[in-house]
Specification:
Blueprint (H helix, E strand, L loop, with lengths): L1 H28 L13 H8 L3 H22 L33 H6 L2 H8 L1 H8 L1
Length: 134
């Protein structure tokens, strides 16, 4: 029984060992950072003169974007003034006789209101519609 466990473990180690060596060899063959540095030309040569490592260049690019966002935010004028919100009626289910007020859905006047020009004007004017639905 014990000999079977030992043989099983030994055979697994023997099968895994070549795979591990092959994987390590393959990774080394890809080059990584072990090869000679590339010869940069043009604008890349100037930039890589200041930021030789890839991570330095990435940080510089991200810093540039953050700087542009901050400048854009500062140039946008700061706080925007909020328009005062009209107070909503205390009881939305009341019926009024005013020409610009919408009657309650539960009232008999609502069906008549849907047929008037005031309702059509309300649908055409987005500001009034959002205020009425508000």
């Amino acid at each position: 029984m014990m000999s079977m466990k030992l043989l099983s473990a030994a055979s697994r180690r023997a099968a895994v060992a070549p795979l591990t060596r092959q994987q390590q060899t393959r990774n080394l063959a890809l080059g990584g950072h072990h090869g000679p540095p590339p010869e940069w030309t043009g604008i890349d040569k100037v930039v890589r003169g200041v930021f030789p490592q890839d991570y330095q260049l990435a940080i510089a690019i991200l810093g540039g974007y953050v700087g542009l966002a901050v400048v854009g935010k500062l140039m946008s004028g700061g706080k925007k003034k909020e328009e005062p919100v009209a107070a909503a009626p205390a009881s939305p289910s009341f019926s009024t006789s005013s020409s610009n007020a919408i009657p309650s859905i539960e009232s008999d006047d609502f069906a008549k209101y849907l047929e008037t020009d005031a309702f059509l004007k309300l649908l055409e004017n987005e500001k009034e519609l959002t205020a009425a639905l508000g």
